[in-house]
Please model this.
Amino acid sequence: MSTAPEDAHSAGAQTPPSQPRDFTWQSADGLTLHGRDWVVDMPDDTAGIPVICLPGLSRNSRDFNDIASFLQKQNHHVIALDYRGRGKSDWDADWRNYALPVEENDIALAIEKLGLKRFAVLGTSRGGLHALVMAGRYSAEQMAGVIFNDVGPHIEMRAIHRIAATLGHRMSARSLAEVADNLKHTIGHQFPAFEHKDWLKLASQLASETSDGVVMDYDPALAHQFASLDDAAPAPDLWPLYDRLLDRPVMVIHGEKSDLLSPETCDRMIETHPNARLRTIPGQGHAPVLWETETHEAVARFLKEL
Model:
């Protein structure tokens, strides 16, 4: 059972939360994969439910720094994972392994290594697709709830084309400011309220400063996933996967200006699920950055009910 927010703040005042720590685990084919771990120092029967954070296609565990720190103060153990080829995880010599089934096995091995018996999933974009599939692997007693960050069983193809047009390009820059400018040029219309400091913060989540300049934190070979994109091919029907989640609570976070998750898909997700809720983030697109306190508190309320 989760601790109430006021109790959590009190406990946090007595025992300051620890800094996140890095950990690694091995994939079945020998890659060293990376994650970040926000632990809580209290008995399992009084702590909140652990939360596994799964990032977007080319994103990494740094996307969850703000919300993970908040949830840790609410006594939730939070884990954020880097898929193979992203963040600090090893790159794969075979780009064909940057595929959902391979990554799903990597995630399962991380859950096993951490000894998680019951958890919730917060999935951004691709991470939400993983959550859909995980419902077939983990029961409601194990995976007790899912938070979809701007993704659902239907994905708008215009967003896929936008991502395909930029993925693997501009992999290096002279500075984080240049990365920030590139991001603003590409998705600025989806985040109209962002100031320069916001673009810089987002840039620091996507790229790292090295002795050779600034580099994006993913393998550009990810772009091969879209090399054979066929407009004539029907989109996969993922609604049967969503139906597997009808036995556990769901929260949908939707960017008001998202080009990937439509209001119509959100409505269907809420209408067809007996225990689902929707939070629309004004002035943000794909994918909401999960920085603001109001969203942190909404997620904490959802988790408390688990």
About this structure: Residues 1-14 have pLDDT under 50 and may be disordered.
